[in-house]
Every structure is written in structure tokens, then in C-alpha cells.
Amino acid sequence: MLREPTPSQIFVLGLPKSGKTSILSVLFNRVNATDTLYLETTTDITEYEMYAGIKAYDYPSQSELDGGVGRPDPRLYYNSRACIIYVIDSQDDVRHSVDILTEIMETAYRVNTDIRVNVFIHKVDGLSRELQTDIHKEIEHRIIKFVDTEGYNTSMVSFFLTSIYDHTVNEAISKVSQEVLPHRPYLDTILNTLCSRSMLDKVYLFDTMTKTYISTDFLPNDTQTFKFCFDSIVVLEDMLSMWKTLQDSFGDDNGDDDDEESEKYRPEKRSVINLKGTMTIITYQVNRRLTLFCIGRPETMQDSTFIEYNAGKAAKGIRKVIKMDMNTSPYTDATLNSGHINEILREDIMSIVTDSYPPQNDMMDHY
Ligand SMILES: Nc1nc2c(ncn2[C@@H]2O[C@H](COP(=O)(O)OP(=O)(O)OP(=O)(O)O)[C@@H](O)[C@H]2O)c(=O)[nH]1
Ligand SMILES: [Mg+2]
């Protein structure tokens, strides 16, 4: 049965100069954080395309009548895969910004009581730790009190301390985009199976272009581990561009690299990063943009053949899921359960092994 396509949309709102365009251009246009100083005021709604068809919209500032904040047509909130990011400049008039946010929430809840609101307490790089905590507490207290008093669901509001000068904004966008990603339950199931069966501490599926992750296993997220992955992408990017340069200089271009769906990603595109003997990250490229980050203790990661075998199987499953058209799937977000997911991914999940010695005759074609 064909359903109406449900777009995954993120509306980025906030007072003028709060940092909306900076966040989006650092992430999606690879603009250097320092170059955002020269950004001009946004005058039109600007669309940014994320991975897997998710779209983020930068709303321009409006007249004083609207409190200076551009707002989407309220009908757009009537979408189960839409959410709001509200950017508050933590170095500016926080109270005024919170007042405008509560007005926006009132409008949004009239249309969709389940819409997720993500509050970015932004530009925290200029504040001491104590001040960050105080401002966070004040903003959270006022907003949660408002939502609670109005009788709405407080668990649908999240708070993030962010800055474009470090990994915090990438981590926040990772969490927000997962909420609207239709493939999420499938990807999380694959990553969780890979993590638990390979005895890893954590697995992320990173979109290396934006340095955000689109899926992870079910273990709680740890900011320190995310930061290690984030830092290592920079190293990895240098290595990959070196690899590409070498490949070009030898004239070895068989087109694999440009094929997003290619099944033939090469095992040698794997890299191992050791962090002070306490943590090892092994990465495997899934396709041109997506890379699996497998993290564990060095002793667990010694048998990398085993992890490589499992990561290869997981990568196959991920490519299959990314190709799936969610609008023709017989399940809606509400009806999908772990039984359906296991049924669809049975072959991919079953082939991820728990034994540390993968079947010998299967070793050569796991990519
Ligand atoms: N210190 C610091 N400055 C930031 C950060 N993010 C953005 N800025 C600065 O904030 C200023 C305004 O940023 P913009 O991205 O243009 O803000 P905007 O919300 O898009 O503004 P309008 O388009 O006018 O609504 C720029 O000078 C940025 O360099 C941050 O994380 N830390
Ligand atoms: Mg702007």
C-alpha cells in the first residue's frame, strides 16, 4: 500500500543573530566557524539537505510584530516527522528569547501536541562552566514549567548546550536528526546487534561529511566517546584524501568510489585509531558518506578479523536499509515493532556472528 510521503523536516528558529545560519553552514556547507563572523542576515527561508532526505530550514528574522523571529506556517507542524530547533544566544537576553519560544510552542501544540522541541542554548563557548550551568537551569526551569502548566508532554522538550567552535553542535544535531529519521529503528537494531555480538563498548554510524551520527546502539551515549570519534574523523579525512590522491596517481579508478550504493567497499579503507591505550576505534566505510565506528577496549579489539567480518555484514544490512523506501513499507512508525524489524533484517542480523572465528569460506566475500 502506497502512503503519502512524510518528509523529515527540522525547522530552525530563533531571535536575530542567535546563530541559526552559523550552525547550519558549519555543519552542511563546511564553513569554518571563524568565517561565520561575516555571515549576512538571512532574508529567505533556506533549505539544507541532510543525509537520508532529512531537510533543515533556516527561518529568516521577521518584523518586530513577530518578536523578530520568522515562523513556519503552523500547518507544517502537522507532521509526525517534523521537529523544531530553537536557538537561544546564551550571551544575549535569554528571558526575551524564552518568552518568544513559549509563544511558538503554543502555536505548534495547537496543531501537534507531540511535536518535539529542541532548545539549543548556544554560544556557550564564551561562558564559564558555572554560568553555563546557571543559564541552562534557568532556561530549562522556565520552559518545563510552561509546558507542564499547559498540560503538554515535558519529555518532548530537550535541551543542549552548543557551540560551533567544538563538537557540541554536531552531537546535538545528531540526536535531533535521529528523531525524524524514518530508517532509525532498522539502523539502531543492526548497530545494537553488531555491538553486543562483537563485545564492543559502542558503535556509531557516522555521516562523515557533517561529522554527525545517524544511528548508534542501545547503550547510553557518552559525550567523551562521541568526541573521540569526532576528532578522529578529521584524521580519517586526511588519510582518505591521501588514499584518493595515491589512487589517482596510479590511475586506479574503477568508479567504485563514486557509487553511493556500491557493495564493493574495500577492506583496506579500514583504519585503526588507538587512544592512549584505553580505547580503540576501528572504522569501516559503508558507502561514500557513511562510516561505522566500532569502539572497544584494546584487548577486545585485538581480533580485528572477527570485528571486520561482523562490520562487513552490518554494512551490507545498512546499505539495504538506506535503499528501502519508507513510504512503501507496509508498516507505519506507529505499527512497526521489533518483530517486523527482525523479519525484514533476518538475514543481515543472523549473519553477524558471536563466535570469534567467522566461517573460513565466508571470509573473502563479506564486503
Ligand atoms: N561565540 C560564538 N559565536 C557564534 C556561535 N554561533 C554563531 N556565532 C556568531 O553569531 C553571529 C550571528 O550568527 P548568524 O548565524 O548570522 O545568526 P542568525 O541567527 O542566522 O541571524 P539572522 O540571520 O540575522 O537571524 C555571528 O557573528 C556568528 O559568528 C557560537 O557558537 N559561538
Ligand atoms: Mg541567519
UniProtKB/TrEMBL annotation:
Task: Kindly give the InterPro entries that the UniProt entry links to this protein.
Answer: Gtr1_RagA, P-loop_NTPase
Which gene codes for it?
GTR2
Q: Could you say which protein family the record assigns here?
A: Belongs to the GTR/RAG GTP-binding protein family.
Q: What is the protein named? A: GTP-binding protein
What are the annotated GO cellular component locations?
A: Gtr1-Gtr2 GTPase complex; nucleus
Q: How does it assemble?
A: Component of the GSE complex.
Please indicate which superkingdom the organism of origin belongs to: Eukaryota
**Its biological function?**
GTPase involved in activation of the TORC1 signaling pathway, which promotes growth and represses autophagy in nutrient-rich conditions.
Quote the Pfam families the UniProt record gives.
Gtr1_RagA
Keywords in UniProt for this one?
Answer: GTP-binding, Nucleotide-binding
**Entry keyword annotation includes Ribonucleoprotein:** no
* GO terms of molecular function: GTP binding; GTPase activity
TM ranges are: none
Biological process (GO) annotations? cellular response to starvation; negative regulation of autophagy; positive regulation of TORC1 signaling
